[in-house]
Amino acid sequence: MPAYDYLIIGGGMTADYAVQGIRSLDLAGSIGIISNDTQPPYKRPPLSKALWKGEPVDSIWLHAAKDHAEIHTTTTAKHLDRQKKLVTDEHGRQYRYRKLLLATGGRVRTLPDDVQGIIYFRTYDDYERLHRLSRTKNRFVVIGGGFTGSEVAAALAMNNKEVPMVFPDEGIGARVYPQRLSRYITEYFLTKGVHVLSNRGVGSIIRTGDTYRVRTTGGEEIVADAIVAGIGMLPNVELAQVAGITTGNGILVNQQLQTSDPDIYAAGDVAEFPNPALMQNIRMEHEDNAKVMGEHAGRNMAGSTAPYIHLPFFYSDLFDLGYEAVGLLNSTFQVVEEWKEEFREGVLYYLHEERVAGVLLWNTWGQLDPARRLIAESGPYTSGTVIGRLPA
């Protein structure tokens, strides 16, 4: 039975950065990783962005875990005995730990009509399969109009594929962007050849051989070579729940990233953490949080007690449009738009309860730290007083 000073459940970016954090303070402690992925840790964002623009696949691989930890891939942790400090995987193998990190991430939401062969885009294996199909196939239905759906649709269209895009909202990113911007993005996708079918759900999917027939709730029937779905994810909290660890919208942690068991930490997509700037608990499914939070958790496992106060940012690339954003972006908030060039370059402020809850830097760069400081201010802010706080 292997015994580790530090055991990490989950093999994504959070795990790799946690190893870096551990090694910054402890050069000798043994580290083990239990991962249900088939690959060692890698960067996820390029799977729907840079790799489709020609960036080499070799650029995605991370190295800290491979160099400093023993990785057990293609297996899932099934039982956690906190009293014995023992983890059992799906094959019955057991692992002892002194400190444990839950970096279990999330699993994709699936369609009610879950036909075999649908690509629920999240992992490197999903990317590889879609990329392989794109070499010989031409028509790809993308289901979902959020972050993943819009990025995958743009990537396929840039590679000269026919892309019908089906989603239930009025426009692309309608739950995040204000209505005018969402409408502009939707129209922009149309000019790039994407066949946008908004305000529609999926009525049925039938697979015949290698062909799919998708009927929308609007009555359209689409024949396609493949279906890609990006409809969100659910945090993997079940292992923690069964072990009696407190959960909410994720695994609850304190500012030191400890769970309700002080020898067990959580970080990354699965962790719900208190953020002082927003004055509330949040859970973030983005690269910056995986990296910074993972490293911070590793350092705290190795003896540091520093609080995690970082407010993560996120970003997206859609054809030649791009942005960075920080805080909470919710289209139901009051959104104040300040454009240098309408829909091409500007700053959008998301106001909630007289505070700046989030900032969207649309094709505007180098303003993340000023945006974080603005969000941390107590206000009060109105549509009149927030204008000009950041350079558009």
Describe the protein.
The chain is globular. The strands form 6 sheets. Strands 1, 2, 3, 4, 5, 6 and 18 form a 7-stranded mixed beta sheet that branches. It has a 5-stranded parallel beta sheet with strand order 8-15-9-10-11. The protein is built from 9 helices and 25 strands. The chain has helices at 13-25, 64-68, 124-134, 147-158, 179-191, 238-242, 287-301, 368-376, 383-386; strands spanning 3-9, 31-34, 70-72, 77-81, 86-89, 94-102, 106-108, 119-120, 140-143, 163-166, 194-197, 202-208, 211-216, 221-224, 226-229, 233-235, 251-252, 264-266, 271-275, 280-282, 313-318, 321-327, 334-341, 345-352, 355-362. The chain folds into 3 domains: 3-107 and 233-301, FAD/NAD(P)-binding domain; 110-229, FAD/NAD(P)-binding domain (3-Layer(bba) Sandwich), CATH 3.50.50; 320-386, Enolase-like, domain 1. A hairpin with a 4-residue loop joins β5 (86-89) and β6 (94-102). The mean pLDDT is 97. α1 (13-25) runs parallel beside α7 (287-301). By secondary structure, it is α/β, with parallel strands linked by helices. The longest helix has 15 residues, at 287-301. Helix content is 22%, strand content 31%.
What tags apply to this protein structure?
392 residues; alpha/beta; FAD/NAD(P)-binding domain; Enolase-like, domain 1; 3 domains; 7-stranded mixed β-sheet; 5-stranded parallel β-sheet; 25 strands; globular
